[in-house]
Amino acid sequence: MLDPNHPIAELLRRDERYHFNAYLFVFEALRHAQDRLGMGTDYYSEADDSGAEEPERHVTGQELCEAMRQYAHQEYGYLAKCVLNEWGIGSTGDFGEIVFNLIEIEQMRKTPHDRREDFENVFDFDEGFQNSFEFSLPDKSEERRS
Fold it and tell me: Is residue 1 part of a domain?
């Protein structure tokens, strides 16, 4: 259960466009982009309180949109678009709105070059989630070995 004092709880009360699961999905897709897909470049943000600079892996808006498309296919298969639509996501621009909502409540960071517009029209949702979905049949030789 979400702590009612958590910044995301306040965000959900203030901006009702997106379901809580949409925010979780963005975090998971970002991790997928960095860890599984190897997306992002090292970015040095401002020094923390100790004065040491820690590199962060920065993923662009376009990269994150592609990672979200791939992650949604992986997690939800042919129903990916339906699941995202249920959470209020109907375009790549919605991904940007979610990301910038998270930036606003300091749950994500951005570089000085990042903009909401980076997420606009990265791909068409119908094409990206339904028309590009590929079915694969199990390899018959693998079935016989089982």
Answer: no
Domain count, the chain: 1
139 lies in some domain: no
- Is the whole-model pTM more than 0.85? no
DSSP-H helix ranges across the chain: 7-14, 20-31, 61-76, 80-86, 92-104, 125-126, 140-145
Q: Tokens representing 99?
A: 């990301």
Task: Judge whether 62 lies within some domain.
Answer: yes
Would residue 140 count as lying in a domain? no
Q: Compute the distance between CA of residue 115 and CA of residue 72 in angstroms, rounded to an integer.
A: 23
What pLDDT digit, counting tens, does each position of 22-68 carry? 999 999 999 999 888 888 776 666 544 545 566 677 899 999 999 99
